Amino acid sequence: MSGGSYYVPATSKWPILGSLALGLMMVGTGMVLVYDRGTLLMVVGILSVLAVMALWFRDVVRESRQGLYDAQMDRSFRQGMGWFIFSEVMFFGAFFAALFYIRTFALPWLDGEGAKGVAALLWPDFVASWPLMSPPDPAIVGPEQTFSPWQLPLVNTLILVGSSITLTVAHEGLKEGERATTRNWLAATLVLAVSFIIIQGVEYYEAYAHYGITLEAGIYGATFFLLTGFHGVHVIIGASILAVMLVRVLRGHFARDNHFGFEAACWYWHFVDVVWVGLFLFVYVF
Questions:
Q1: How many domains does the chain have?
Q2: CATH number of the domain bearing residue 140
Q3: Can you tell me the distance from the alpha carbon of 196 to that of 191, in angstroms, rounded to the nearest whole number?
Q4: Residue 180: inside a domain, yes or no?
Q5: Does the keyword 4Fe-4S apply (predicted)?
Q6: Residue 168 falls within a domain, yes or no?
Q7: Residue 55's pLDDT is what?
Q8: Which of 174, 189, 235, 236 could bond to 166 as cystine, CB 3.0-4.6 Å?
Q9: By three-state DSSP, how is residue 252 classified?
Q10: pTM of the model
């Protein structure tokens, strides 16, 4: 490359294959949710999406390692990652907004308060409270008890906050050319990520087995699993990304001044950590 030229990727089959894989996954998922069949189609779709992602990212890594990317491509990657994280902010923002709407407006209305307090006519004996242990509809059984925020949720909060610190140390080590520091602290971050996933699995077991917190336990159970479940999926995705970064570090990838793949993984992980702090405060504490 020379002058003002920039790299133009070769014709790629991955966008169309990725679209087909996503369509297959969504059709299968829709069939499972609506007709209670189509599990095989959904699984094939999920595996297809993962395969396309892995092969597509492989090609991007190869092109980067071959020195084909310039400053313009670096800006494109940064802008793309920035917009992706913005979309994730909107994704979780919608769920937090739903939680705040329920707690601030819907429950008081059902209790006769506010401009739409006439809704109290639906269930005259309903008393608004949060967490909602007794749903207004007697056909729905609420949770038996809720989690103390100062036990497993606090442990997981400390783990994720700690993981952001260890990842920052690893990133600084990479920028200083200290690859051993990067390797060790990135491995520590991955251990913390896996620990979080395991502890959340234990919490979910306790929720179903001993606390009566299920997806069917009224609005509290639904919002609890909606928010913490989607966040857990993001932690698993983030841990997978960190594992790939660790493999690449062990293979000698990344340079002190050229490592946006690693930096993008850091952006994503820090975002996941910030979301959890919000969940800890508004799902468990307040």
A1: 2
A2: 1.20.120.80
A3: 9
A4: yes
A5: no
A6: yes
A7: 94
A8: 189
A9: coil
A10: 0.89
